[in-house]
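Deliverable D5.2: sample structural annotation.
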Amino acid sequence: MASSSTSSLHFLLFLLLISQSYGQQSFRPHALVLPVAKDAATLQYVTHVNQRTPLVSVNLVIDLGGRFLWVDCDLSYVSSSYLPARCRSAQCSLAKSTSCGECFSSPKPGCNNNTCGLFPGNPFISTSTSGELAQDVLSLQSTDGSNPGTVVTVPRFLFTCGSTFLLEGLANGAKGIAGLGRMPIAFPSQFASAFSFHRKFAICLSSSTTSNGVIFFGDGPYVFLLNKELSNSLIYTPLLTNPVSTAGVSTQGEPSYEYFIGVKSIKISEKRVPLNASLLSIDNNGFGGTKISTVNPYTTLETSIYKAFSEAFIREATSRNITRAAPVAPFDVCFSSKGIGSTRVGPAVPWVDLVLQSENVYWRIFGANSMVYVNDDVVCLAFVDGGSNPRTSIVIGGYQLEDNLLQFDLATSRLGFTSSLLFRQTTCANFNFTSNV
C-alpha cells in the first residue's frame, strides 16, 4: 500500500493534469446542469451524459450515495479516447483503488493488463463485481442557474467499467449508475476539480414521470419558472459521516460515502412520536442513524420506529375523521381518499416533522410527500417497515425528496433543504431546460 506522502504526490499530479486539460478551454462554467427523469416502471431517477469519442448519449441511474460513475463496458463500448488507469498511478490513488490486475484476453475497454480496479455495484439488487478503472471524455451542459448553456467537456473523466449483468433491475435503457457520493471520483468532486467551482451540488427530483427534475453541480442561483430563486430559501443541517462503509464492497477502516443527517426526533402534527432515541445515532459499528437515498423509493423505518410512527399517524388521521382502508402492498397503512381534502401541498393529512439539530430546525413533510394515491379511492402512507435490525434506522427515500430542493455542500459538510416547493408555487419540473445559447 502506498505511503501517505506518495498518495499526496499522486493527488497533486492528478490535479495538475486536470488543470492543464481545462486550461486550454476558453470558457469556464459557473455550474453544470443535468436533467433527471423519474422512471415510471422502477421509480428510479435517470439522467444522461455524453461520453466517449465519438460522443454517445449514455443513460444512467442516479445513486445519491454512489461512489463513482460506472458503465457497462461489455457491450458496444467503443471509444478512441478510452484510457485505462495503470497500477500505482495518480488516478488509482485518487480513486482509492487497492487492486492491480491482469486481463487474459485481447485488450479492450474493461480488459487491460497492469490496470487498477474498483468494485462497481448495483444497490438495487445488492450485487457488485470487479471492474477496471479508466478515463474517457464526458460532456454536459453548463448553466447560469436559470437555463442550460454552453456544452463543456471533461477530457479525462474517471469511471469504472462494469459488466452487463449489473444492469439487471435498472431502468430500461440505463447503461450504468452515476454516483453522487462523497468519493473523490464521484460526479460532484470531479466536476468541481475540473472547473474550479464550489464542491457542492443540488438535486431537485420531479414527482412527475413526464417532466424532468434537475441536478446542479456547483453553486446557485437555482432559478425555476415564475422566477423563483431558491438558494435563499434553504434551511441547513450538518452532514454526518458514518465511520463504517455502507458500500457492498469496502476496505477495512473505510468510511461511508453516503449522506447522513442527525434526526433527533419525529413529530406528527407537532406531537413527538415515542421511540428509542438510541436508534437515531450511528454506533461504533456503523449501525443506526438517518441517511438520504435515491435507491429506496420510499422512506424506510426500523420496525419499532415504524410501529410507533404509523400508530401515531393513524391516531392523528382518525381525529380528522379520515377512514382506514385495506393495505395495498408495499404499504401497510392506507386510508379512504373520500373525506380527505386537498391543499397546495397535497392531501390534507397530518404533517410529519423530522426534527434535526434543534427543535427549531426541522424538515416538514406534507401530504404530497407522505401519501401515495394507489387508486382513485385509496391513499397510503408512503413509509415502509425497514425490518428489525437494518443497517440504517431511517432511510429517507426518493418519494420524500420529490419537489424539495436539496443542496449538498461537501466542503462544509452541510445539507441545505427547502421542504416542499409546492408552498412556493413551483415544482422541481419547473427548471427551464430551454437553452439560452
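Annotation notes: The two ends are 48 Å apart (CA to CA). The CA atoms of residues 195 and 299 lie 35 Å apart.
The annotation will be released with the project's public dataset once the embargo ends.
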